[in-house]
Design goal:
heterodimer; A: about 200 residues; mainly alpha; about 55% helix; B: about 450 residues; mainly beta; 16-stranded antiparallel β-barrel; two-stranded antiparallel ribbon; 19 strands; globular
């Protein structure tokens, strides 16, 4: 039932939303920028490799916040430094806002259902792990992992990427105190279970 | 590295020139990663390279896009219509590369030589590598070579490129002006950027080589048009003409050798499929060249007026493939290539420089490399060259050009732009034979080479 709801939620978001460009950024400029993003993040943000996160259907506020973090070097996990510090360095706020709106408006990838540990992952996602001080993921990321504002969509993300981020939060390689607190006592198998529930690979 | 295959002057110089050419061909054919690209884009080496100089899918897109991606401040100007008239990077895209090496052969080349060689620098290169304007970029390399003691043009690739979206498809298209067939290619499975990236300058190499496998490098100029669709389908077609360095075909009545008659067409078609962290490419490439005043691997040559020179016709056609797996821990690249060359010796045969009116040569290579965290790596390569029997043309003792060799290399990168390598090359067959290949008792294995090198790019 939970899976059915999750799929239904994903399908309800399936149609790309139209969005209006903010002033000061032309359609041509945005298209030129997103063709560069496409080299790693795939057509319309649906990346092929799990090294690069899917951006299609991601929350606009989250994308914008991360691009600003990259630009200002306030996020310094290895991939952020290697790829995104450079790519975001010359983006202004208006362009960032439009890039974020463009990807948020793309059809999200639905999560894959039925992973080996999906049932365990679903339980962690919905109820947390009280023994490990892990709160329910759904409390912030939404019942269906769709995210909200600066809290990212997780549903349908690459499994490798989700796993890498959870491990990076746990070790503080990616500096985020809230997510570090939520993940510091997570075991590898619990991470695997959450990924199995949310990811699409 | 710089490669020379014959711009020799005059009859008396033919043999000496070919000895020089063979010596230069024996030098490493290297391909390079350029830190000025990193400075221009703000991207670390790993964005474009698994381990330099092997390209990642993003590196291929960056190259196809004309090296123009930039993420730095720039000096700009616009006209009254707000159209860009100037867009210069605030940093000149200059890089330097230094290689130093120590070589130890199994046996000295002759009774006069040492079997070891210290080369410092084996090669020193200066690059202009980066964006020139919004749609134009360049990779220009000038190299000092300690064997010749001179600076000279190395690989050069100047591009115009743009990108468009048609019906949802991402289409990169452009032009490349370059000096080496396959230097414009995006994969490491063709000759200009293929393994081995560096070998000993003291290495003995087989007499025969297909034209597209090196002899044309840096002595031609070619203009090609290409398109790269959805980072998957690549089509390129170009024309090459001779563009000698240090000599001219148009002045002084010099009797230059191996001059392309008219133009030499080049083609390249490739398909790449990416899934998860894997990519697999397969493709075809080729070159058709008619050479005036051709020289032969044996050192023979024809030297008459270029206005009347007969030609040997070379048709090179190849198949190649490349597989990659890339993640943070593991970087695997496997390449394979088969190049077939038909040689219609319409000039060399009548001049009694060949026993046969036509010959052929085949070259195969399979190379696999594994890197761990882009820090430690091992590479294993197998190479085979075979051809028809022609004592006069190839100049080998039994007339066969057949050679088979393999190499193994261990690399350590303390930093992403510094590589230390230890390489061993073993010849199973050389110029037609395993033992006594030269008729003077030298065996193929006498050319085996232990080679240690240090490679900086900054």
């Amino acid at each position: 039932m939970r899976h059915a709801l999750l799929i239904a939620a994903a399908l309800s978001l399936a149609a790309p939303h139209a969005f209006a460009l903010d002033s000061g950024v032309s359609k041509q400029t945005l298209e030129k920028v997103t063709t560069v993003c496409q080299n790693c993040h795939g057509a319309k943000g649906d990346s092929v490799s799990g090294t690069f996160p899917r951006l299609n259907g991601q929350q606009a506020a989250y994308i914008a916040a991360q691009l600003k973090n990259f630009r200002e070097h306030s996020r310094s996990d290895p991939h952020a430094m290697a790829y995104m510090w450079g790519m975001a360095s010359q983006l202004d706020d208006a362009l960032i806002a439009n890039i974020a709106k463009y990807y948020a408006a793309q059809k999200p990838t639905p999560p894959q259902t039925g992973g080996a540990l999906a049932a365990q992952g679903k339980a962690i996602f919905a109820d947390g792990i009280p023994a490990h001080t892990v709160p329910p993921c759904a409390a912030c990321h939404g019942d269906h992992g769709e995210g909200a504002a600066e809290v990212p969509r997780l549903a349908g993300q690459h499994g490798d990427y989700l796993k890498q981020q959870l491990e990076a939060f746990r070790s503080l390689l990616r500096e985020n105190q809230v997510m570090h607190a939520n993940t510091k006592d997570m075991t590898d198998s619990e991470i695997e279970a959450i990924v199995s529930y949310l990811a699409n690979d | 590295m710089r490669n020379s295959s014959g711009s020799n002057r005059g009859t008396a110089n033919v043999i000496g020139g070919w000895l020089l050419a063979l010596m230069l061909l024996a030098m490493p054919r290297t391909a390079h990663a350029v830190p000025s690209f990193a400075r221009q884009t703000g991207l670390a080496c790993e964005a474009c390279h698994t381990v330099f100089p092997q390209l990642t899918p993003f590196g291929r897109a960056f190259k196809a896009s004309g090296y123009t991606l930039f993420n730095t401040l720039k000096v700009q100007d616009v006209n009254q219509l707000k159209q860009s008239t100037l867009s210069l990077s605030d940093l000149p895209p200059i890089s330097l590369m230094v290689m130093a090496s120590e070589s130890m052969a199994s046996k000295a080349n002759d009774s006069q030589s040492s079997k070891s060689s210290t080369d410092f620098p084996q090669q020193l290169s200066l690059f202009y590598a980066g964006r020139i304007s919004d749609n134009v970029g360049a990779y220009i390399q000038v190299t000092y070579d300690d064997q010749s003691g001179t600076f000279g043009m190395d690989n050069t690739d100047i591009r115009f490129a743009d990108v468009a979206t048609f019906d949802g498809h991402n289409v990169i298209y452009g032009l490349s002006l370059n000096n080496n067939p396959t230097v414009s290619d995006l994969w490491n499975s063709t000759s200009a950027w293929g393994q081995p990236f560096i070998t000993s300058p003291a290495m003995q190499t087989p007499a025969a080589t297909p034209q597209i496998e090196g002899p044309m490098a840096q002595v031609v100029a070619g203009l090609s048009a290409y398109t790269y669709i959805d980072q998957s389908i690549y089509v390129e077609a170009g024309l090459y003409r001779s563009a000698l360095q240090g000599a001219s075909v148009a002045f002084n009545g010099n009797l230059n050798n191996n001059i392309i008659s008219g133009v030499a067409p080049y083609w390249r078609i490739a398909y790449e499929n990416d899934w998860d962290k894997n990519s697999w490419e397969f493709g075809t490439f080729g070159l058709a060249a008619q050479l005036e005043n051709p020289t032969t691997p044996a050192g023979g040559g024809i030297n008459i007026s270029l206005q009347n020179a007969p030609t040997d016709r070379f048709l090179d056609a190849g198949l190649d493939t490349q597989y990659q797996y890339i993640d943070d821990e593991t970087q695997i690249t496997v390449t394979g290539r088969w190049t077939h060359e038909n040689q219609a010796l319409n000039a060399s045969f009548p001049a009694t420089n060949a026993d046969n009116p036509s010959d052929s040569v085949d070259f195969e290579s399979v190379v696999g490399s594994y890197f761990w965290h882009r820090k430690l790596g091992a590479t294993l390569g197998f190479f085979n060259l075979s051809g028809t029997t022609d004592s006069t043309y190839f100049g080998t003792s039994n007339g066969s050009p057949d050679s088979t060799w393999g190499n193994v290399e261990i690399d350590y990168l303390p930093w992403l732009n510094v590589k230390l390598g230890l390489q061993y090359t073993a010849y199973m067959k050389f110029n037609g034979a395993t033992s006594n290949y030269d008729g003077a008792g030298r065996n193929a294995s006498d050319n085996n080479m232990l080679f240690a090198y240090l490679w900086f790019a900054f």
